């Protein structure tokens, strides 16, 4: 069993009087034995280092806002415990907010993890087309692709 956490942070580096999101994230990760953390709407840019976001025992795979179709907000991050080998598969990513990562188990079987986010202001049809194309590419490389819950956030 792999313990996972999914978060939509709406700017992970946000600090205000009521919230220090990075501190809350680190508290959460020290409380739970998490092996994979998936974060959408990171709002990260290349100015923030991986070590500033997640503890050193995580291998960080990112698709920052500069790599997505979005004009504001956006960004994906997948943190994988270093004891679980992983590789970013940017050759399988979609053009929008879709990130593909390969996990390699102790038995050397490979599993694809697909993290995606559809911003409310995005073109839904274009996103679905991109996601469908990504999943078709993923399925040609992997026999078993686990699916999680797809949810569209509404304002």
How would you describe the overall organization of this protein?
The protein is 21% helix and 25% strand. The chain is an alpha+beta fold. Strand 1, helix 1 and strand 2 (36-40) form a beta-alpha-beta unit. The longest helix is centred in the C-terminal third of the chain and has 18 residues, at 124-141. The radius of gyration is 15 Å and the shape is globular. The model has no long low-confidence stretch (mean pLDDT 86).
Outline of this structure?
The chain is of the alpha+beta class and 155 residues long. It is built from three helices and seven strands.
Observed structural traits:
alpha+beta, three-stranded antiparallel β-sheet, 7 strands, globular
Q: Give the helix tally.
A: 3
Nearest-angstrom radius of gyration?
15 Å
Fraction in helix: 10-25%
Spatial arrangement of strands, main beta sheet: 1-2-4-3
Q: Give a count of the beta strands, DSSP E runs of length 2 or more.
A: 7
* Biggest beta sheet summary: 4 strands, mixed
Q: Average pLDDT value? A: 86
Ends distance: 34 Å
Q: Please write the string of helix (H) and strand (E) elements.
A: EHEHEEEEEH
What's the shape?
globular
Question: SS-based structural class?
Answer: alpha+beta
> Which band does the percent of strand residues land in?
25-35%
Low-confidence stretches: none
